[in-house]
Amino acid sequence: xSSFLLAGSLLLATGVSATPPEVQKWLEGxxxxxxxxxxxxxxxxxxxxxxxxxxGTADFDVYxxxxxxxxxxxxxxxxxxRKILTSGAKMWLIVPxxxxxxxxxxxxxxxxxxSFGDVAQLRFAEDFTAVLRDETETxxxxxxxxxxxxxxxxxxxxxxxxxxLDKEERLPRQVLFFLPSGKAARRxxxxxxxxxxxKAVVAEMEIRELLGRESTAVTRIEYRDYRPARLDDAIFTxxxxxxx
Length: 244
Hints:
This protein has helices at 4-14, 21-34, 116-119, 124-127, 238-242, and strands at 39-50, 53-65, 69-74, 83-87, 90-94, 102-104, 109-111, 114-115, 128-139, 142-151, 160-166, 172-178, 184-196, 199-209, 217-228. 16% of the residues lie in helices and 50% in strands. 28% of the residues are buried. The chain is built from 5 helices and 15 strands. The chain is globular, with a radius of gyration of 18 Å. By secondary structure, the chain is an alpha+beta fold. The protein has a single domain, classed as outer membrane lipoprotein receptor (LolB), chain A, CATH 2.50.20.10.
């Protein structure tokens, strides 16, 4: 992502208004539901659902440290032991027995419509500016405020995003991601929330690709355990991750 100085320059150059303070707090709250702790280990399952029928699944743990470091470790199944390491803008696939890690991109698929980037960190409050619509809309029976988000970085994969925020609980209910062409490409619905150490965290989300062959399927990600942890910096290097 661009630095804050560059982001600020882009805002000035394009005339995009800063997010109002109250709305900024809402976005920070949304981010906290997925990133409640600076360091944590999350146990999760991704399921591929087509026409209401569950297909393949993948169980994994995600080790998270700060904004831009994570290590995803597959547990069980044909991918057991494989790892996805993210450090800054770089990502690697680590295969058991392989000599060297394989560089990959955030668009590499985890399962169905979920890419590795979906499991990594996303910060609405830092990466976007927001405009609040006057009218409310209903999502899954909940009255929601609607926020139109504009990416601060010109390099963002999704320059425009729409976020539906529960009017009463201030929890995210739905997010719609748009490509630079203006086409809606991906919809994410947050279907369950839980508490961890007194903080509200996402317990389940559903991802649907709106373009291409995956548009008939939904990828469901269940966050089954979310626990704060003290993590060694070494595991977020290719050599250190291989030994975990």
